[in-house]
Design brief:
Elements (H helix, E strand, L loop, with lengths): L3 E12 L2 E12 L3 E5 L6 H8 L9 E6 L2 E3 L4 H6 L2 E4 L11 H5 L6 E2 L2 E2 L1 H14 L15 H14 L4 E5 L7 H16 L3 E5 L3 H7 L2 E6 L2 E7 L5 H9 L17 E11 L8 E9 L3 E6 L5 H8 L5 E9 L2 E2 L5 H7 L1 E4 L3 H5 L6 H6 L3 H4 E2 L2 E2 L1 H14 L16 H13 L5 E5 L7 H16 L3 E5 L3 H7 L2 E6 L2 E7 L5 H8 L8
Length: about 500
């Protein structure tokens, strides 16, 4: 049997009255990728923080062993000395420094009291080559894309020759080709005997890379499964505590009148370079989910941002909202007309992270809450509490900072904010990105409720399964044009991809 490098036995971790981990055991073998799956709040982050020394010995019950011997990590530095490296979802690189400086920060080679820059760049070049990463070590990290930064983060950990590498949602913000490169790097590390813990909400990636899968739910381990001997349905059942017969529970409503109509829309990008929207035509009807798909750079997000008055210059075409011309210059105008957007980047554009739940939820509805020059606080709390209850947002109270909530609950706060404006048409840009299976199902059920009530939903998603499962009709974009339009019954992955690549088309 392969050597067990790291083991956690009977771990109990409490935060006040809250039990985050209730007796969890977990082991990791040399040369394996062990996936850790569970909904947000299941205890995954708490467990890996224990393994990495963030929560020091003495703050929890149970024991951690390395090579069969109990060990007491007092800090992250203790864990690093023992060969445990962790790569958090939020990258910890210095954008003003070079790749080489970031790789060896805190351990820059010196000669006679001065940094030996020749050795720094020589070692950086060797480390990057060793990881199969084609990057100039002198390049400024701030000039790199998100995927390249993620690879630099991994290379920095690899430079310290870890025995255990923990990757927390490493692909959440990556494009498909970047994900493939990262998974290939993880496979190479596994082949060298490095033990990897891989955390992801994307089960296709889990099954592509993992040897074993441990599922957590509500702070308890629900079993460890051999990846080749199980399937996504079983993992999901253990994660959420119920059998899911249909992962995409779309309940179709009878479509009503056209709420959003786009006809011959042409939009130039704000700068000389960038995607140009060309002759786009489609409509979204009351009670309908209109899916928008396409490859990276096809213009999906740009289209939604233009409709909200945030992007590009319209050169031709028209947009109608509920039968009236729409050409807004700001999100405030769009909201007033009944058009709302849930952005793909909730942390950057959707939330004020340091402010509370109530502040964030009511932010777009302050005019409706105003009584004279002041906001009616009682009315605000009443309305916010109602939508928080309706969406089952898990928060200590309405003043809990949004940045301290789980990813799924942060996304529901963004949804609550736009729903409080009572939009006629809701634009959803990657609404389930970075949230767990249970939270995804809640978003899908919310979509069903909104369309049943007569709203129109425009859903942008890079996941073909989600597009096919939750859309009544699908528009595939290709380089700013309509590559094809499909009814639910005729949409297949092959046809959608062909349309996204400009190899298949139908008149809109």
């Amino acid at each position: 049997m392969t050597q067990v490098v790291l083991e956690a036995r009977g771990i109990v971790k409490r935060f006040g009255a809250l039990t985050a981990l209730g007796g969890v055991s977990f082991d990791l073998r040399a040369g394996e990728v062990h996936a850790l799956c569970g909904e947000n709040g299941a205890g995954k982050s708490t467990l890996i923080k224990l393994l990495a020394g963030v929560h020091p010995h003495g703050s929890y019950e149970g024991e951690i062993l390395i090579d069969g011997r109990p060990i007491a990590f007092r800090s992250t530095r203790d864990a690093e000395r023992a060969g445990v490296a962790i790569i958090h979802q939020e990258l910890a690189l210095f954008p003003e420094m070079s790749v080489a400086e970031n790789l060896f920060l805190g351990a820059l080679p010196c000669r006679r009291g001065r940094i030996d820059w020749d050795r720094v760049y020589a070692q950086a070049t060797a480390t990057l080559a060793d990881c199969g990463i084609a990057l100039d070590p002198a390049k400024r990290v701030g000039d790199l894309g998100v995927g390249q930064r993620q690879l630099v983060e991994i290379a920095r950990a690899v430079a310290r020759r870890p025995r255990v590498l923990v990757l927390d949602e490493p692909t959440a913000a990556l494009a498909r080709h970047e994900i493939d490169a990262l998974l290939e790097l993880v496979r190479a590390l596994r082949a060298r005997g490095v033990a990897c813990v891989f955390i992801s909400h994307k089960l296709d990636e889990v099954f592509a890379i993992a040897d074993r899968i441990t599922v957590l739910r509500d702070g308890s381990a629900q079993g460890t499964l051999a990846a080749p001997a199980t399937d996504a349905g079983e993992v999901i059942r253990r994660m959420v505590g119920r059998q899911i017969g249909d992962y995409y529970p779309r309940r179709q409503a009878e479509p009503g009148r056209t709420l959003l109509a786009v006809r011959g829309l042409c939009v130039a990008p704000p700068k000389a370079s960038g995607v140009q929207l060309q002759r786009l035509s489609f409509e979204a009807r009351a009670g309908e989910v209109l899916g928008i798909g396409g490859l990276m750079g096809a213009g999906r997000s740009e289209l939604l941002m233009h409709l909200l008055g945030l992007w590009g210059t319209r050169s031709a075409g028209e947009v109608e909202l509920d039968g009236e011309q729409l050409h807004v210059r700001s999100p405030r105008e769009a909201l007033a007309r009944g058009l709302a957007l849930v952005t793909e980047d909730r942390k950057r554009y959707g939330l004020v992270l340091e402010q509370g739940v109530a502040f964030n939820v009511s932010l777009a509805s302050l005019r409706a809450l105003r009584r004279g020059p002041l906001v009616d606080r009682d009315d605000e709390v009443r309305r916010v509490q109602a939508v928080v209850n309706d969406l089952h947002i898990k928060a200590r109270d309405l003043e809990q900072p949004a940045g301290t909530l789980s990813g799924g609950n942060q996304q529901k706060v963004v949804l609550a904010k736009v729903l409080l404006t009572k939009p006629k048409v809701l634009l959803l840009d990657e609404p389930t990105r970075g949230i767990d299976v249970g939270a995804k199902l809640e978003v899908y059920e919310l979509i069903n409720r909104l369309t049943a009530a007569g709203q129109a939903i425009v859903l942008v998603s890079s996941e073909l399964g989600e597009l096919m499962g939750m859309s009544d009709r699908i528009v595939m974009l290709c380089e700013g044009r309509v590559g094809g339009v499909f009814d639910r019954a005729e949409a297949t992955q092959e046809r959608l991809l062909a349309a996204a690549m400009g190899r298949l088309g139908r008149a809109a």
